Amino acid sequence: YFVLDFEAGILQYFVNEQSKHQKPRGALSLSGAIVSLSDEAPHMLVVYSANGEMYKLRAADAKEKQFWVTQLRACAKYHMEMNSKMMSQVEGQQKNLVHAIESLPGSGPLTALDQDLLLLKATSAATLSCLGECLSLLQQSVHQASQPSHKPVASENILGWHGPKSHSAEQMKNGTLGSLPSASANITWAILPNSAEEEPTLRPEPEPSSAPELVLSEDEKSDNEDKEETELGVMEDQRSIILHLISQLKLGMDLTKVVLPTFILEKRSLLEMYADFMAHPDLLLAVTAGATPEERVLCFVEYYLTAFHEGRKGALAKKPYNPIIGETFHCSWEVPKDKVQPRRTAAPSPPDGLECSGADDSSKGYKLRFVAEQVSHHPPISCFYCECKERRLCVCAHVWTKSKFMGMSVGVSMIGEGVLRLLEHGEEYVFTLPSAYARSILTIPWVELGGKVNINCAKTGYSATVIFHTKPFYGGKVHRVTAEVKHNPTNTIVCKAHGEWNGTLEFTYNNGETKVIDTTTLPVYPKRIRPLDKQGPMESRNLWREVTRYLRLGDIDSATEQKRRLEEKQRVEERKRENLRTPWKPKYFTQEGDGWVYFNPLWKAH
């Protein structure tokens, strides 16, 4: 027997009508609940609460069923709107709190920069953001209530179905307002690429036609830079600076022009970070060794899933230098030919007369060349291109990093796409990139990836969907990723994968075979890069060399001063271009439609 307490927004469950004045067997908050019809039994309706519980009710007839559906939906909507009004009141109170703190004197026993008050401002902003996100999700759920229902899934929270003989309009005198579901707010914040300081431009505009092919590879040497960032928590004196910065930010704020403290920098440019995603060039070149289109798409998906862990230097979340417009980064990798082969277990043999291109003379290695350039300041767009002429493979990508403050967290969207071209087969694989999220800047900052990305090859009809899962509020694992590879013409799933993008990945193929890749044991090929004295003034390591040197010494003040000088020089050059109305012309890339392409790509040279 059920009683709807409209004022309290609660659906109460009793054993029978006679026991309705006793303590209810159960109660369901209707704020944000979804009420759906069900064909599981005649005159059945199902109430899904926002916290995941579900009640099944069966009315005596169709008229009674419709009455209950109408009343339950009206109650859910009413209390949803009440919660929205409450949110508005809470937002006003939080603004008053911030105003009261900022109105305190600049000196004395209690100031606006008091650490506890800064933490209070930051925590209240994060709590408000979390509640706002919960309310938004609930409101989205309400819109689904009018859609046709499907059969409810089994749940441990089912209390069974019970049909009231009559409806009750009783209202409990001491009803409480249906509240938002409790959620654990992850009070975190951190920094990721291009979420920071304003960095104008420098250097006269070169003509694209004057650019060298890539770099003089004979000058390159194996990279011996530091492999890991120092994994320390935030120092107390740094915590005050971060708290003060957080307290000035607004939810949803674009962080592109926010000047961030120097101590959170990572000692490498974002352009070099993109190169570090290529740390397993043997897996990338192995794509060309696939004997069939299915083999090749599977090899590429395996490479894609293993590419991200090396791009993050250790577990610490720090921000790479924002590339300056015109900044470039060059490097290459050398891969022994016997290391380039399909990674799939029990790979099929090539058809008669077709020699696997990876089985040629192993006395020489393959060379994979890489160049990246910052081609735009507003919006901040980076391009990179890499090629292996011997394997007739190249990758070209453009990425616009857009960051947003999310209330003690920072999200960075990687807008754009890349294209892998296999010239031997005339195949193009278009792929996108996941978003990144930084957490826990006030303790031990860490990075996670999130979002759905796609890989598509129009010629072969193969596609892949990859989902990077963010950690839920309650429980759950970090760094999870799942993937599915599909042959669209036949609607056949040829492979599924799951695991951690920085740990172990398991692949299951449609023939029943399985394969496990541990990213932590994969060989990492060091970059080959020219020494600083051989680099041009706009190449990343040479450009940021003084900032990097002082960061390594732990001299934050000197690093900040060097960074300030660099930025001021860039501003002067930018103002000159504005006065002359001279547009910037990138050195290595040209814009084509909404995308960017390398000025002398391999597919045009063959």
From TrEMBL:
Keyword Transport: yes
Record-annotated membrane-spanning stretches: none
GO molecular function, one term: cholesterol binding
Keywords noted in UniProt: Coiled coil, Cytoplasm, Cytoskeleton, Lipid biosynthesis, Lipid metabolism, Lipid transport, Lipid-binding, Methylation, Phosphoprotein, Transport
Major localisation: cytoplasm
Every PH domain range: 1-77
Subcellular location: Cytoplasm, Cytoskeleton
Biased composition (Acidic residues): 216-231
Biological process, per Gene Ontology: lipid metabolic process; lipid transport
Region annotated Disordered, chain positions: 197-233, 341-360
The family this protein is said to belong to: Belongs to the OSBP family.
Biological role: Probable lipid transporter involved in lipid countertransport between the endoplasmic reticulum and the plasma membrane. Its ability to bind phosphatidylserine, suggests that it specifically exchanges phosphatidylserine with phosphatidylinositol 4-phosphate (PI4P), delivering phosphatidylserine to the plasma membrane in exchange for PI4P. Plays a role in negative regulation of lipid biosynthesis. Negatively regulates APOB secretion from hepatocytes. Binds cholesterol and acidic phospholipids. Also binds 25-hydroxycholesterol. Binds phosphatidylserine.
Stated name of the protein: Oxysterol-binding protein
Organism whose genome encodes this protein: Microcebus murinus (Gray mouse lemur)
